[in-house]
3-dehydroquinate dehydratase (freshwater metagenome), 145 residues
Amino acid sequence: MTSILVLNGPNLSRLGSREPEVYGSTTWEQLVKSLEAAATSTETISVRQTNDESELIGWIHEALDLQAEVILNPAAFTHYSYALRDAVAMFTGAQLPLIEVHISNPHAREEFRHNSVISGVATGVIAGFGVESYHLALAALRSRR
Ligand code: DQA
C-alpha cells in the first residue's frame, strides 16, 4: 500500500470563492473529493489544509515517519518559509518523492511569487494547470514507482 499525503497551506480551503479569476471556480470540497476518488486500490490518499506553519511542518514529519509520498501546495509559505524548506529537505535523504504544486503559475504573477524557497529541495514542481496540477502530480508520483 502506498500512502499519499496531499498537504495544503494557508487560504487554500477558500478555493472556489477565493480570487476565482486566479484559482478557478472548483471548490475546496470538490478538489478533496476528486483527489480521494482518484486513489487506486493500492493507494491511500489523505488531503489536508492548514493555515498554520507549525501544523504543516508536523505533517511533513508524519509523512517521513509513515514513508508517505507527498503532494505539497505550500501556498504563501512557498515564498518565505525556511522552516518548511528544512522539513522538505529531509525527503531527499529519505528518498521519498515530494512534488510541489501550484494552482496558478506564480512566475506569471507578482514578483514576490517568482521565488520558491521549496523548489530547490522538492522532487519536482507542477504549476499553472489549475486544480489539474494536483492530478498531474499524482501521475508524476505513479510514474516514479
Ligand atoms: C499558490 C500560489 C501562491 O503564490 C499563493 O500564495 C497561494 C496559492 C497556488 O496554488 O497557485 O496561496 O500556491
